[in-house]
């Protein structure tokens, strides 16, 4: 999807440069837009904001009318909520054709009919003699081999009939296609035309002649060729009206044979109609082996004969039942959003209509059902049956001459017979496409069952492009490689059947091969269908290899990803041969611990990130081994974004292992704390409260050992300090651990005294840890830093009642009441909510191994866009968690890449204004509670933070977004995400395209008023930058971890210290943006409101100066002095201050 | 181009410094290298009749717009030519009530990051204030003889200072707790003394320590009691007993549905405005 539609944006400001503009402007525009759509908005949402409904008592409690009761009852029976009903009605209104347009189309169709009838005939010639064709038109068919028997002449069709969805009233916008069947006169055809593509050649010539004459007609805006359902033997002619109606409708002309021309028994799936002798130009092998059957070829011929009978069947079933029509329209929208309906072998709307007809005939759907119920029933059917094993048939006759279902199963992966019992409607549908449909139906069913409020939106309005749906995607190109693959896989009969379309011929066997190879790692394998080309009549049909590339999507199973081993059968078993053959040289005999000697394949992967990419190894190996497709032709897109979260100089891991080491060290520490002897009160709980301990720190810490000579030594305090003459030392961030002590009556009841007692505990803790476990500790009044195995932990002692003590206020009557104060809120957040969140996300990581990398990638991106300071760590973690806990309509991501794309999609499309983002950690919130939260949210919307995130522990306040982001910053984030998503998706879908993957991570700098360039010497995390510097400074750490007797420099980050000073001094005048991961530049944005001249006031002189403007003395910011202050405050760190705009003079 | 002209216009008054009525402006810069100057706006500290102020009248100079790098020491040094200075106090915003602060604990009240501040400078004699009002400046915060640390040097020294000395901390904690315990013990003793002794009007105060302790008077406790009462009442009530109750529940259900319907309609309206119904 492109950038979010303007209406969806918060505040509505359109571009970046306008970011800080006051929000009213944007909303004004929005209102204008709304009014320009000529809709009378009854309860007009003033700023696109939902307001609680206020109905008077009289209105609420008036006697209901019969009509109202009926409607309510209907809603209850036919839909599960009134909202859904309204939404469905609204959607149908949007996609259905209006009567006015229908009239215009009808007129056009009548015209078309007349023109077709007037096309002149031509005399009969040999099929191979095409000299009579005029110069401006080419035959829309690959005529390979060219020589074919038969004679052709053009005669106007005997009958022109409209078939398909237009007639049924189930066609949906935006692509309105009207299918018109042209019945060719019997004189054109001869006996045995079903053989050797003769019928198709004639069909193509018929169209070519027609095209030539219609193209000269001014009635038509464009006349093009295309393929029917992507089948390259069956071209069709597209006619579009001239002028402004050009996009209104596309008329598709399908020539078809006269009724009963072909004998159905010759077109059964077991019959051959393309002779090898003709097709391969050689005589059949002398051993008299039978000709291979050509099921697909036969089906394509049969399809042409059945056009009318199908439309008759559908019109009798759907005819008067509007609910069924609605259902079909909804199903078509559903298919379209999932890109399932296009191309050869797509599960198109016609198939859905037939499926609905089938369900009606088996009484699974009743004609009085609503569209929603039809949708549900179809999902139910698709999810619970398997047409690949048990085919279904619309045919009711028990005629013994009809072929058996088993014959069809032999020839086709999916079987769904039409009413004649001879035509498989799903002939072109591959097994993977069908499984994908099944999978989607199952997901949708589950989604409908949760009765989520936004179910409709997720089901029918959310597009699911391949790159955002599948964990890994691989492109095979150039497609001509598949020709070789066909030969390697010995697919000659299939090629003969498919008329040389090697892409379709190879697709089935390739997907089966990969499916077998990926085994337990794979949940679903899907493939793209080559897009249906459309070309000018003066051109030849496009070649098979021109359809770009073949894209395969892999949905992975996280449980299967951890294994590096493919365990085969025991060596002496007969299956061992197959296994060896399948895996080729990779298969080895191995002896296992239980003594068994088995065939096995071992993949090289040590880290989680390499294990995630084992499918890449499997795919390249199998494709090269079995299909002769070399590595260079396979573009595997799965780990492209991994580099962004790899530690500098470490390319083999995305940090999961390093995080696990840190967490293990924390576990050890907490055990030590539990067992500590000599504390006056025992430890009652130890909880982690740092991103590392929930696996979401972008760059995990490494065990640290200082190089002493690099530092100043503070011997008596056992610490190191930075030296002014050296570059800034490495950044070591202590990991916060909250340590609760048991309750006791001995604690003082005074806030100040509690702090002192806590400090005493911190001191005692340090003393005991040093004494009993020999750990290097340093206590301060609020925390104790502990150095353990190179990691530094910051233990904060907490007393449960302290927030309460801070809250207590005594009223004059002596009543003690509890009131939140900033200090109590902060303390509660740090000692209660943060540990809870940390442990919940820690748990999430155990369920979804990809969570860590997705959250880190998301954070990396937000920070790279210089917005990291505005959005707290925790809020971003929660947004990432939402992707896993509420993945609908997708499945939880199993790779960082797809997770990150969905993060961008969520951020850019979520309606933050009217919805809270519910993150149902541990599934603690029930549906009712969620409804309650939503209504509470709407009632209090204006008082709540712009970005509102609900968790089970935090239902009313959204603690982590309370202090930001502001509406403008959030809007900026939304805009950036909406821009980044299509760019990134395009890069991932087009492996050879320009630009590298880091493009979307580089921030736009042209919007800032001032840029402060920093010297890398004093940026401790310089190497973490998006574009990692080739060289940086030595940061005083030894590469070999080991014990240290002095506490390293903790949390010393000059850019952060500098920013804190800037914000304190100039926060009223400007906003400061910085990427904490090695950013070399600080972006400064002046606040336009504080640049308005103001009268002198003692309370607002900060950084301003007095000037005389029009004879009046007013205060304006003293910009030039401030710019110099920037340099003064950051002496040593600041390299240059660049003022880039003169906005402040306004 | 207008912009540039304005810019010049903005710079020009720097020579003949403007000052708001009642104040005088003193240009101030960090060091000689700085070309653009900030201005301190100073005046004598005065309060209206009847308002109490912790700062001595006449002798106190009130300074606005003190730049962040200017410390109390440097301000004291800069203004000392005007007369002997008794004290300099920097504050975030003008605050009359607050007098000179109590010395704060180094460990428990970390120093905030300074921004632009206001200062109260108390001279020993009123003459100092008058002299200061006529200062021409520009004042230089950091000079060769008295350098002021900023940037990397300041952060490093801040870091070094922030590394605590556990023994000193322990001493401070012990001292505080000793005082606290003494105070608590005194209060305890006093409360014990007053225990059961009626006051002038004959009332006896009932406390936690009394023979029959009472519930603490907290909001939470009273809410709990109310809640319990309510539950008790709800238990006794019969629902769906009378016909009118039946009728009313039905009506209530209908009203709920109506309300929901209205809400949904509004939601749909909004979605339509946002074009949320276009699946393409």
TrEMBL record, chain A:
It comes from the Eukaryota. GO terms for biological process: rRNA processing; tRNA export from nucleus. It holds the Pfam family Nrap_D5. Residues 1-43 are annotated as: Disordered. The keyword DNA damage does not apply. Keywords: Chromosome, Nucleus, RNA-binding. It is found in: Chromosome; Nucleus, Nucleolus. One of its GO terms (molecular function) is RNA binding. One of its GO terms (cellular component) is small-subunit processome. Residues 178-317, 324-462, 467-627, 640-846, 848-1003, 1005-1136 form the Nrap protein domain. The keyword Transport does not apply. Part of the small subunit (SSU) processome, first precursor of the small eukaryotic ribosomal subunit. During the assembly of the SSU processome in the nucleolus, many ribosome biogenesis factors, an RNA chaperone and ribosomal proteins associate with the nascent pre-rRNA and work in concert to generate RNA folding, modifications, rearrangements and cleavage as well as targeted degradation of pre-ribosomal RNA by the RNA exosome. Belongs to the NRAP family. Part of the small subunit (SSU) processome, composed of more than 70 proteins and the RNA chaperone small nucleolar RNA (snoRNA) U3. Interacts with RRP7A; required for NOL6 localization to nucleolus. This is Nucleolar protein 6.
UniProtKB/TrEMBL annotation, chain B:
Residues 162-280 form the Ribosomal RNA-processing protein 7 C-terminal domain. Residues 61-91 form the RRM domain. One of its GO terms (biological process) is rRNA processing. GO terms for molecular function: RNA binding. It is found in: Cell projection, Cilium; Cytoplasm, Cytoskeleton, Microtubule organizing center, Centrosome; Nucleus, Nucleolus. It holds the Pfam family RRM_1. One of its GO terms (cellular component) is cilium. Keywords: Cell projection, Cytoplasm, Cytoskeleton, Nucleus, Phosphoprotein, RNA-binding. InterPro entries: Nucleotide-bd_a/b_plait_sf, RBD_domain_sf, RRM_dom, RRP7, RRP7_C, Rrp7A_RRM. Its main location: other. Residues 1-24 are annotated as: Disordered. It comes from the Eukaryota. SUPFAM superfamilies: RNA-binding domain, RBD. Belongs to the RRP7 family. Nucleolar protein that is involved in ribosomal RNA (rRNA) processing. Also plays a role in primary cilia resorption, and cell cycle progression in neurogenesis and neocortex development. Part of the small subunit (SSU) processome, first precursor of the small eukaryotic ribosomal subunit. Part of the small subunit (SSU) processome, composed of more than 70 proteins and the RNA chaperone small nucleolar RNA (snoRNA) U3. Interacts with NOL6; required for NOL6 localization to nucleolus. This is Ribosomal RNA-processing protein 7 homolog A. It comes from Tupaia chinensis.
